[in-house]
Write a structure and sequence with these properties.
Distance between the termini: 35 Å
CATH superfamily of the largest domain: TolB, C-terminal domain
Strand content: 35-45%
CATH class of the largest domain: Mainly Beta
CATH topology of the largest domain: Neuraminidase
Shape: globular
Number of helices: 3
Structural class: mainly beta
Number of strands: 30
Helix content: 10-25%
Largest sheet: 5 strands, mixed
Strand order of the largest sheet: 1-25-24-23-22
Radius of gyration: 21 Å
Oligomer: single chain
Length: 393
């Protein structure tokens, strides 16, 4: 199975085209109130300039600020020696020191998150310190894995496989990445320790093994295995390596499992109706309900840390990213992008922003229904960039 075929299989994109009932609800953007902020810090050294650029980038990405002159919040001081933000009757200070530009950017991210927490009209934790893992496809059967921060900076290649790499996702510990690789000629699941660079196979399965998603408590993996026939959803105990079969869809295939933040639900994709649709399995009751019915393809579901569900939905031959509260059903879904080739949404830790791929590039999407912003391209490096996945903090 080559790289392109695997991508199609995991997304179950070979669905028959059909007419879907009822449109999703689109966003009516009304212009969210954002806090005006002015950055007046020193910028003498390269590290200080890197600090200021990174701070401004992350404040803009947060969707909570407008960076410019005469802001109601002012950031002053000397980066690396002491900076502070004052306004709205508050003061937030940082004395973080740094030795180089990389350390300066990390200090700026921490300060940006602190400003979001303290000065945003709707305070949140911010996501500047979140990391992404993603793939650069080099050919039909070759890809490399990279990491970067949510601002697109400090990008690092973490794996040169020389083979196809599909669907990397972080474990809850923030250091391990699980992905599907072809090192042994077939699709198997591997764990990569990003601190040591060590790689290990999850288990010696017969057939294919794909789509590993680690439970929030780090003890189990939801994954897709084919050793008993067609690809089915299983849950593995990571301690004992024992597996429990969840689905029994003869002649169909499952893909893309995602755990709810409390570990009680798993959203996944199945083409048992001959169109890929999203289903939700209840771990406690062992019952499954169909979640999506709108669109000719619904793929790549992912729960946010706050319990929202995002997925890619195809309508009229183009893809959108949709978001909904699972308890309210698909009828309450919102489209958070215009139509395009959108795929693989992944939530940031703030529960507001999503990374997704489109046209061989990765974008950050603000899902706030009152935000009046377009998706921001993460970086502009040449390549075929795809399948972004955020860490959980």
């Amino acid at each position: 199975m080559n790289f392109k075929t695997l991508i199609l299989t995991l997304a179950i994109a070979s669905a028959a085209v059909g007419n879907a009932a009822g449109p999703l609800i689109t966003i009516v953007k009304q212009g969210m109130q954002r806090t005006a902020i002015t950055i007046e810090t020193s910028a003498a050294s390269p590290a200080q300039k890197a600090y200021n650029a990174c701070l401004e980038r992350n404040l803009k990405l947060s969707g909570a600020f407008v960076v410019g002159k005469n802001g109601s919040v002012k950031v002053t001081g000397v980066p690396g020696a002491g900076v502070s933000a004052t306004g709205k009757g508050k003061k937030v200070a940082s004395n973080a020191a740094f030795a180089d530009e990389k350390e300066a950017r990390m200090a700026a991210r921490r300060f940006a998150d602190a400003l979001v927490q303290n000065f945003a009209d709707v305070p949140s934790k911010g996501f500047a310190q979140d990391r992404l893992v993603f793939v650069n496809r080099l050919g039909s059967d070759n890809a490399d894995m990279y990491t970067a921060y949510a601002d697109g900076m400090d990008m690092r290649c973490i794996s040169r496989e020389g083979h196809a790499v599909v669907g990397p996702r972080w474990a809850p510990n923030g250091t391990d990445i699980y992905y599907t690789g072809f090192l042994e000629g077939t699709a198997l699941i591997y764990r990569l320790d990003t601190l040591t660079g060590r790689r290990s196979k999850l288990a010696p399965f017969k057939g294919t093994a794909t789509g590993a998603a680690i439970s929030p408590d780090g003890t189990k993996a939801a994954l897709i295995l084919s050793f008993q026939g067609n690809p089915e959803l299983y849950i593995m105990d990571l301690g004992t390596k024992r597996v429990k079969r969840i689905t029994r869809t003869k002649g169909a295939a499952e893909a893309s499992p995602s755990w709810s933040p409390d570990g009680t639900k798993i959203a996944y994709v199945s083409d048992e109706t001959r169109q890929p649709q999203i289903y939700i399995y209840d771990v406690n009751t062992e019952k499954t309900v169909r979640f999506t019915r709108t669109g000719t393809q619904n793929t790549n579901p992912e729960y946010s840390p706050q319990g929202l569900l995002a997925w890619a939905t195809k309508r009229g031959g183009v893809n959108y990213i949709a978001v909904a509260e699972p308890a309210k059903g698909e009828g309450a879904a919102r489209l958070v992008t215009d139509g395009g080739s959108w795929e693989h949404p992944s939530w940031a830790s703030d529960g507001r922003h999503i990374a997704a791929s489109r046209d061989n590039a990765i974008f950050i999407i603000d899902t706030d229904p009152e935000a009046d912003t377009k998706p921001v391209q993460l970086f502009r490096n040449a390549g075929n960039w795809m399948t972004p996945a955020f860490t959980r903090r």
